[in-house]
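Q: Got a minute? One more chain.
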Amino acid sequence: MLMAHPAVLKDLIAQYEALTLLGAEESTPGAQQRLADISYTLCVATGTRDVDMALIAARHRLSGARPEDDSLLQEPAPVRTGSAA
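A: Always. Here it is, folded:
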């Protein structure tokens, strides 16, 4: 399974929390659709089928992760072999 980058998960959680705090589920159709889209994306990104489980999984993956870690976006440093003289 592909793993979402920690920065992506952090952003999705923040968007979901903001929309729920603003009452998107009882708001305009556009806000309801945005909440549904974020919920779906969280489920896909975490390999779950329920938004509550997706939030738990995303937060679990973030524990100890550095949100600004872009190590997946950079080429790895070359491996050096042999002894230094």
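A: The longest helix spans residues 29-46.
Q: Perfect, thanks.
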